[in-house]
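README, section 4: Worked example with a bound small molecule

Sections 1 through 3 covered apo chains. Here we extend the same pipeline to holo records, where the ligand is supplied as SMILES alongside the sequence. The molecule in this example is flavin-adenine dinucleotide. Nothing else about the input changes; the structure line simply encodes the ligand pose together with the chain.
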Amino acid sequence: MPSTAYESPWLSDEVRIFRKTVRQFIQEEFVPQQERWRQQHHADPDASTKAGRIGMLLPDVPQEYGGGGGTFAHAAVVLEELARAGVHFGFSIQSIVARYILTHGSEEQKRRWLPRMASGELPAAVAMTEPAAGSDLQGIKTVARREGDHYIINGTKTFITNALHAGLVCLAVKTDPKAAGPKGISLIVVETKELAGYRVGTPLEKVGRHGQDTCELFFDDARVPVANLLGPAEGKGFFQMMEQLPYERLSVAVAAVATAEQAVEITTEYVKTRTAFGKPLLEFQNTRMKLAECKTGAHVGRVFLDSCIERFMRGQLDPVTAAMAKYWLTDREFQIVDECVQLHGGYGYMNEYPIARMWADSRVQRIYAGTNEIMKEMIAWSL
Ligand SMILES: Cc1cc2nc3c(=O)[nH]c(=O)nc-3n(C[C@H](O)[C@H](O)[C@H](O)COP(=O)(O)OP(=O)(O)OC[C@H]3O[C@@H](n4cnc5c(N)ncnc54)[C@H](O)[C@@H]3O)c2cc1C
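The generated complex, written as structure tokens:
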């Protein structure tokens, strides 16, 4: 019995064409490299310039700053296509940093950094987390001490995605270590090229997402111009982060739903062809019930996600709803992918099968961009 095809209401003809270009590029340029990226624990250094050349980076940034001049719908299709192909590439991080600069940067900063970020010449990273401060961002210890026209930065960041090739790091620091709570935190954009006192550690050994680097960053008296402060004054960083986190959380949610849908699709194919006790797995009632539950979960997630995307495009996605999307959709993603691993039997545990990699790759979605427990705390504050 066929189900009526559902299409996301935010998809326009223009966005569909953009999706085609992105899909073809990912299939031709990134998918064949995945085994190598996983072995080396990072993407190739020229991956971002290749993506920039087809206009895949910063699709929702105005054209006057080198972006694609589109909307979040354009960013969403890139996130979906990467998730469906199982490619972990710094698109989302690049977009997040661009958004910080676009929203809080001066005109001069926007013109200096955004066009080179859009071309891929300037890959970016976001560095908030520290060894002793993840969920509790107010506890960060990295300090930027002002000395004339420069900040002298000291401290360590950890779990920083895309750090290996990042030419630009959006860095959370304490500019006033004595200030209470969030007030002493600022965001500084660090240009890393030939920066003395800046060092990137070797990529950390993760459970999944092996094709994308996650590193430690070390700042040892690194001198960064005061002109690289984001915003009109020091002490605004925590509020800037809180304001931008819905964008990041929505991006995580987009990838979560695309992954769940892909898991259902490939598992449906698998159970139609694999046989046991003389018949395809799909003919066992348990397989049918489990897949029916997974398909329903992915669809319910899709409809909620689409509503969040539309609200975001109208400038109406509030932080609490973004937290609901991040927590609920990444929980569903992992639950669905885990069930699909089970339906694959032993093959579901073998890395050569996409479902096994999806399982390992999905787990962290519940941890980063604010853990799902922190999301529930945020939702609870609104009660
Ligand atoms: C692969 C990967 C990539 C990442 N990329 C980046 C990046 O690019 N940039 C960056 O800055 N960070 C990045 N992170 C860091 C990530 O955002 C943090 O790991 C996350 O915010 C959690 O912080 P933590 O690891 O210090 O855990 P902790 O804060 O120590 O939390 C440990 C546990 O305690 C729970 N907990 C903490 N506080 C509360 C509370 N108030 N109520 C209930 N439960 C609580 C948490 O939910 C969690 O279950 C990345 C992490 C990973 C694993």
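What to look for in the output: Residues 276 and 284 are 9 Å apart (CA to CA). The beta strands are 124-127, 143-147, 150-161, 168-174, 185-191, 198-200, 214-225, 275-276, 279-280.

Section 5 describes how to batch many such records.
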